[in-house]
Each structure stands twice: as structure tokens, then as C-alpha cells.
Design goal:
Length: about 50
């Protein structure tokens, strides 16, 4: 019974890690997309000095 429980905990940990990594990847992708848009359109951002 203990091995099954350990396996369950392992799968849950793997699911958590994948979910967190997926979220981070999504956030990074969105951030990069926004950055790319801003870099490609310099005339649209006159007031913002980064």
C-alpha cells in the first residue's frame, strides 16, 4: 500500500511541477510577445521611456 501512496505523491508532484513550469512558460511567452510588439512599433510608444 505504501508504494502506491508514494507513487501517487510522485505523480502529484510531477503534475504540480509541470503546471508551474507551464504557467511560467506562458507568462514568459506573453511577456516576450508584448516586448516584441513594443520593439517593432517605436512610434506607438513616445511617452514611455524604459
Amino acid at each position: 500500500m505504501e508504494t502506491i501512496q508514494d507513487l501517487d505523491h510522485l505523480t502529484m508532484a510531477i503534475y504540480l511541477i509541470t503546471a508551474i513550469l507551464g504557467l511560467i512558460a506562458l507568462i514568459l511567452a506573453v511577456f516576450l510577445l508584448i516586448n516584441d510588439k513594443e520593439r517593432r512599433n517605436p512610434w506607438e510608444r513616445k511617452d514611455t521611456n524604459w
